[in-house]
Amino acid sequence: MLQLLNQLTALLNHLFGWPLTNLMDKAGFPPAVAGAPIHNRLTLQLVITVSLVLFFIYVRIRLSVEKPGKAQHLAEIVYEFVEGQAKEIIGHGYEPYLSYGTMILVFILLNNCMGLLPGIDTPTASPVVPLGLALLTFVYYNVHGLWQQGPWNYFKHFLGPVKVIWWFTFPLEIVSHLARILSLTVRLYANMFASDLLTLVFYSMVPMLFPILFLGLHFLVALIQCYVFMLLTFIYLAQAVSHEADL
Q: What is the pTM of this model?
C-alpha cells in the first residue's frame, strides 16, 4: 500500500511538480524539495476527494426509490445523520449547509482512518491539514453570516449584548472568533497525532494483540473527531446566521 502511494505521489510530482514549485516560489512559499512539492499526505487527500466525487456521482446515476442499492443506502444514512444534527443545532433554514457539513464529516473521517492502513501516516496528524479545514470553515460561516444578515447586522454580533461597553466586548469577540481557528486545528491534530503515536509505540512493544486494540481505539478517535468538527461547524454557523431576535 505504501509503495503504491509513493508511486502515485512520484507520478503527480512528475506531472505537476515544477509548475507547482514555480507557483509556490512566486507566492513566497518555496517547497522543501524543488520539483517535488506534492507529498503523500496531499496525495491521500486528492485520492479521497476524487473517490468521494465518483461515489456521489455513482449514487446519483443509480438513484432509485423502488430498488435502492447499497451505495444509496450508505449515502442516505450519512445524509440523514447530518440532517438530524443540522436541524437540531441550526433550526429553521438549515438545508443550505447540509452539503458542507456532510463534506466535513466524511472527508475528515476518511483522512483520519488512513492511519489504519499499514505504513500510512494519518493526514490529519499533520497540523497543515486541520489548519486548512479550520480556515475553510472560518471563512465559510463568516461569509454565510454576512450573506444572511448583511454587513451591519452581522457586525453588531461582535458588539456584545450590552452596547454601552462595545469598546470592551468588540476586541474580545474578535479574539474569540480568531481563536476558533486554533481550537479546531489543535483539537483535530493533537488527537490524531496522539492516536498515531500511541499505536506505533504499542506496536513496537507488542507486535500482535495490543496493536489490534489500539487500531480499534484509533478508529473510535477518528469517528469522534470528525463528529466534533462537524458539530462545531454547525454551532458556529448557527451563531453566524441567527438574527438578533433569535439569540
A: 0.88
